[in-house]
């Protein structure tokens, strides 16, 4: 039973499914019926489905038949109408066909014409499109052609601008063409080529600048010199400057009207050729010598290419190298002024160029970079000048060098460079200049002193007299009243030395010009240098002359007279310096001239030399003395050598007329003392072991001759017996022995008013022993005369007694 129920349930489901499929077939488009039928065939009941389908078809046929039967009459009427319409339709068809045939025949030419028109329209459209494309490409090609032309003509900055327009404006419009890709690929190469070529131009420019820096510097320094001369003329003649204006500002070296975005010109001319002919009216400016367009072009090109920093670093590095080369002085620079001038010209040219670059470019160089270079240049220049100037021994060259350094400093100061260190260094060179001047004037003074005749200057006319007075400040009313011919008291070297001192002062003043020193500083410098001239150079020259071996007393006397007059002229030298510096001597810290001291020292040296020379002459005469110490004859006149000596002294002291009184008196006293001392030494000489009273008498005659000379007053100014005191020791000694007054000597010895106060016991004992030896020898020879022997024996005993007492005085004095 259950199976029956299950079968029944399955059949119901199948029937329901078949019904659904049939409804779907009826309602679905025939194109989509396939899946439905597939579901039927996929099932197991397709037989029953076919039966059901047949049943459904029969039902529909019966419905159609019912409907047809219901509408059949209308259908027949409709068919009858259709049959009538078919005939009319056939006629219409024939007419349309005939009309179409005629139309096709008539429109065949039109179709051909339309085809031709279509082709023409197509061609026209293609041509128009081609023209449009060509219009887009032609500017690109023209720009590229222009770029190539600019590259060929080396107009690199315009080429770079063209390349920018080509890359950013024209190529993007036609970027899909193959030739544009080739251009795009070639653009970096063109940029590098422009970059390399512009850098090559810059290198050529830098090389040319290095070679021509001296010409640029020479031009700048000439312009500075012109401006200084013009300033001097304006200061001297203020009105002259208003009559004529300079054609251009002498300190505007370069043309500053340069566009910051474009080069100055399109030609890389570097250094232009300039004729060497100098024009007194106008020196060509450095803008006439230099074309900076390579720098500007290269700067703009690198800026556009985004490599400005690379360019700046390269430029600064190369210029630093050039600066080091410029600052390296030639080894023989110190030999000539041209060596220094060329050195300065190169430095000025270098910094003039850098200053121009600073003011005409935006940031290629900056003030810090310039200051750094200048500090390096300043230190190296000063070091080089110190080294090379130290080799210079010509004061004229040192003075020219100083003027050149001042011009060098003034030129650079115009461009804003600090030059105080250069002027400080000039103060150092000033000391060297003073040394070279001193050496030069040492030679001048030596020549003057060597060539002088050391005789008073004779004058035979008023004209000669005024000439000498004009050269040397000398006033003597007594000399003026004397008739011609007459003589100045001094020799020719006095006015010559005085004028040379003034020339030295002028030379010192020349160096102080343009050093921006105050009058007080100039005055102090001149006075200090003049003091060195007086105290060192002139003093040494005078000392050398005074110390010469062959100098005579006449020359020494004249030197004393000359130095006396030169000493008096020192106040006129003070006035001379005051007049040229306008600094009064009373000003605080004003240095005083040491001329008075110098000439006093020279005079004292000459005086000492006179004393020494006189003593040497006296010694020479004394060497001629030939005493017979054993003679027994009593002479009646002084020795010949001493008479000659006294005559010499009289003639010598007669020359001392113009000497200051004290000098002549001192010389006379010194000569007498030396003569007395020498005579005493001659008498007490150890080699003379014996002497007779007769020899002592002859010696006494010579001393009397000396005393007579002293009493005669060879030099005025001595008091009564002052000069005789030089021989007092000899006189008392000789009186003691000749008068044989031993009792008085021994009794009064030690008392302040004794007769033989100046006789020393040692001296008396020495001389007594010599006489004693002689008497003993004589006694032995004359022993045959007993009476004489007895007298001599008594005298010998007396001598022995006196000698014993003298020894006692000596020992007691020592104790």
From TrEMBL:
Keyword Transcription recorded: no
Name used for this protein in its record: Exocyst complex component
Gene Ontology CC entries for this record: exocyst; plasma membrane
Organism: Saimiri boliviensis boliviensis
Keywords: Coiled coil, Exocytosis, Transport
Residue ranges of the region described as Disordered: 260-280
Similarity comment: Belongs to the SEC15 family.
Exocyst complex subunit EXOC6/Sec15 C-terminal domain: residues covered: 421-770
Coiled-coil stretches: 82-109
InterPro entries from the UniProt entry: EXOC6/Sec15 (IPR007225), EXOC6/Sec15_C (IPR046361), EXOC6/Sec15_C_dom1 (IPR042045), EXOC6_Sec15_N (IPR048359), EXOC6PINT-1/Sec15/Tip20_C_dom2 (IPR042044)
Domain of life: Eukaryota
Domain Exocyst complex component EXOC6/Sec15 N-terminal: residue ranges: 52-221
GO biological process: Golgi to plasma membrane transport; intracellular protein transport; vesicle tethering involved in exocytosis
One Pfam family per UniProt: EXOC6_Sec15_N
Function, in words: Component of the exocyst complex involved in the docking of exocytic vesicles with fusion sites on the plasma membrane.
């Amino acid at each position: 039973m259950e199976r029956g129920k299950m079968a029944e349930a399955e059949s119901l489901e199948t029937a329901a499914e078949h019904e659904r499929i049939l409804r779907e077939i009826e309602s679905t488009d025939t194109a989509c019926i396939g899946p439905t039928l597939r579901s039927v065939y996929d099932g197991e009941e397709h037989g029953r489905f076919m039966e059901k389908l047949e049943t459904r078809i029969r039902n529909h046929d019966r419905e159609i038949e019912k409907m047809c039967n219901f509408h059949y009459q209308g259908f027949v009427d409709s068919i009858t109408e259709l049959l009538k319409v078919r005939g009319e339709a056939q006629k219409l068809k024939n007419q349309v066909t005939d009309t179409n045939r005629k139309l096709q025949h008539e429109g065949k030419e039109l179709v051909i014409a339309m085809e031709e028109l279509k082709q023409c329209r197509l061609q026209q459209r293609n041509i128009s499109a081609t023209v449009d494309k060509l219009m887009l490409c032609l500017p690109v090609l023209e720009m590229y052609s222009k770029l190539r032309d600019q590259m060929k003509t080396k107009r690199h900055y315009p080429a770079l601008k063209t390349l920018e327009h080509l890359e950013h404006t024209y190529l993007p419009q036609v970027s899909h063409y193959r030739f544009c890709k080739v251009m795009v690929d070639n653009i970096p190469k063109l940029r590098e080529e422009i970059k390399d070529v512009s850098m090559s131009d810059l290198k050529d420019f830098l090389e040319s600048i290095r070679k021509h820096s001296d010409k640029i510097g020479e031009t700048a320094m000439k312009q500075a010199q012109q401006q200084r001369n013009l300033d001097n003329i304006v200061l001297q003649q203020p009105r002259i400057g208003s009559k004529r204006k300079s054609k251009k500002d002498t300190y505007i070296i370069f043309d500053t009207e340069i566009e910051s975005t474009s080069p100055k010109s399109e030609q890389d001319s570097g250094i232009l050729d300039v004729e060497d002919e100098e024009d007194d009216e106008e020196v060509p400016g450095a803008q006439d010598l230099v074309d900076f367009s390579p720098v500007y072009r290269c700067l703009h090109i690198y800026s556009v290419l985004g490599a400005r920093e690379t360019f700046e670093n390269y430029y600064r590095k190369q210029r630093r190298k050039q600066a080091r080369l410029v600052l390296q002085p030639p080894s023989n620079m110190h030999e000539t002024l041209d060596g220094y001038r060329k050195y300065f010209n190169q430095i000025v040219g270098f910094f003039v160029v850098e200053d121009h670059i600073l003011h005409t470019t935006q940031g290629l160089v900056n003030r810090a970079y310039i200051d750094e270079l200048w500090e390096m240049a300043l230190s190296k220049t000063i070091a080089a000048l110190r080294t090379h100037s130290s080799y210079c021994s010509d004061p004229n060259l040192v003075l020219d060098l100083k003027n050149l350094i001042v011009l060098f400093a003034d030129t650079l100061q115009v461009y804003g460079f600090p030059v105080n260190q250069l002027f400080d260094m000039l103060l150092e060179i000033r000391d060297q200049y003073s040394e070279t001047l001193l050496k030069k004037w040492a030679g001048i003074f030596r020549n003057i002193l060597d060539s002088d005749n050391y005789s008073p200057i004779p004058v035979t006319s008023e004209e000669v007299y005024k000439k000498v007075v004009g050269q040397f400040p000398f006033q003597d009313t007594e000399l003026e009243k004397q008739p011609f011919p007459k003589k100045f008291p001094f020799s020719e070297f006095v006015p010559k030395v005085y004028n040379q001192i003034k020339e030295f002062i002028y030379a010192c003043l020349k160096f102080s010009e343009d050093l921006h020193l105050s009058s007080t500083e100039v005055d102090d410098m001149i006075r200090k240098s003049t003091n060195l001239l007086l105290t060192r150079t002139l003093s040494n020259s005078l000392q050398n002359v005074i110390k010469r071996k062959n100098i005579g007393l006449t020359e020494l006397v004249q030197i004393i007279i000359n130095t006396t007059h030169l000493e008096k002229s020192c106040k006129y030298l003070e006035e001379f310096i005051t007049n040229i510096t306008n600094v009064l001597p009373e000003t605080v810290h004003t240095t005083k001239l040491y001329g008075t001291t110098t000439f006093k020292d020279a005079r004292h040296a000459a005086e000492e030399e006179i004393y020494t020379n006189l003593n040497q002459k006296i010694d020479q005469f004394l060497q001629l003395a030939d005493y017979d110490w054993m003679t027994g004859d009593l002479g009646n006149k002084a020795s010949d050598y001493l008479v000659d000596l006294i005559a010499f002294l009289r003639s010598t002291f007669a020359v001392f007329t113009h000497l200051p009184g004290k000098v002549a008196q001192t010389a006379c006293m010194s000569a007498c003392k030396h003569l007395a001392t020498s005579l005493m030494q001659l008498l007490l000489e150890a080699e003379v072991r014996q002497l007779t009273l007769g020899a002592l008498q002859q010696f006494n005659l010579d001393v009397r001759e000396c005393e007579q000379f002293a009493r005669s007053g060879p030099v005025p100014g001595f008091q009564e017996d002052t000069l005789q005191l030089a021989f007092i020791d000899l006189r008392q000694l000789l009186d003691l022995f000749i008068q044989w007054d031993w009792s008085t000597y021994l009794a009064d010895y030690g008392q302040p008013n004794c007769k033989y106060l100046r006789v020393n016991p040692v001296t008396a004992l020495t001389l007594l022993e010599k006489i004693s030896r002689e008497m003993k020898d004589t006694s032995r020879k004359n022993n045959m005369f007993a009476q004489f022997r007895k007298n001599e024996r008594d005298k010998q005993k007396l001598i022995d007694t006196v000698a014993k007492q003298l020894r006692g005085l000596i020992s007691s004095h020592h104790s």
